[in-house]
């Protein structure tokens, strides 16, 4: 995985940069010890590692602004980092870059029940938002499986989803406003508690921008009332294809469950051994379908969906009878990723999205790929919105297995695009999918996206080496034309 070559000039002034950064963030806020920097050398995509040149842990917006302004003046690259749970290498450091950690931004600033909004710092964990408002009967809808650890700032950077995004939307559908700091230290505020801001949707642009446009320092999220009733169904199938067909039948019938997840035999057995959620062990695929709303509606839909599942070939069906049982059903799904560690020393977690009606054909072709590559696949994914998370099982101690797993993963992502899907649903592009962007976008598309980056970060110092397979200089993209060291019409003000 090629990254931007370290700049010798930057490495040469490392000592001076450390001193300047310590003047901004005193105490233990600047880390330059090589052993201590190893803690930041990778995110959740641990196949790639690179300690940063320096790590800085600010605790105020003023410090973030000053750090970025310093790096801007000195021409130093900056990589923002939240909890480090990214699975696409989005927070992979650079050997000549400053890693900007936002873990100290961990406070809930304001709870506004009247506007159904909560203002939080980016280091607040996803689950902590719900915890802050649960006593009043509210919750925050997006719920990635890593919600106990992943942070709101990271959720915004990757546009994270989760089990309930089928009905309630991704992060982008559940945030109202942001405070962010640009590479030159400028502090901006976008959106707010009003529902429909005028002008360009810059909040939407920042959501999913993967740290390439600015550093998020505050987020205003939307909270919802807890539904009157919630019930979950466990539905077993003799094969993954019939489970995929059932998903299409349910959505085709006009029913939008709160969540609809799928697990295959490998994932079912690993999760059951780990959590003892009560999963059937004699099925090849399992759907977990959650319904919420008024009790009478939920009870009606439980029966309706049960009939659709039987028509699709379900061999077992069980509905939760109380809240404890419903939570137990979900506990297995939430723990599925770590549980797979019981059956394989290593796994490579993929993330692609396809049209729902393509699930049967994609699952069939993935099974054939598994045979061809000689690597098992455990499927755990958001079936309702077609967001796949195949876990390719391998052993990093066996020569060539990691490389084979990466080739397998790339073929899965190409298949997603082939059937009308996209390279990522919620994990982001990062470095993992960067070199596959040409499978989905033309050069014209990618150049236009880079022009957006140029508008926010003209020198390309924020998180370089991510998302774009070839990063052009802004001048090459037509932002500023320079000839003989001068721009045309130099007397005209430029912004």
UniProtKB/TrEMBL annotation:
Residues 48-226 form the FAD-binding PCMH-type domain. InterPro entries: FAD-bd_oxidored_4_C, FAD-bd_PCMH, FAD-bd_PCMH-like_sf, FAD-bd_PCMH_sub2, FAD-linked_Oxase-like_C, FAD-linked_OxidoTrans_Type4, Oxid_FAD_bind_N, Vanillyl_alc_oxidase_C-sub2. Its cofactor is FAD. Its EC number is 1.-.-.-. GO terms for molecular function: FAD binding; oxidoreductase activity. It comes from the Bacteria. Keywords: FAD, Flavoprotein, Oxidoreductase. This is Putative FAD-linked oxidoreductase. The lineage of its organism: Bacteria, Pseudomonadati, Pseudomonadota, Alphaproteobacteria, Sneathiellales.
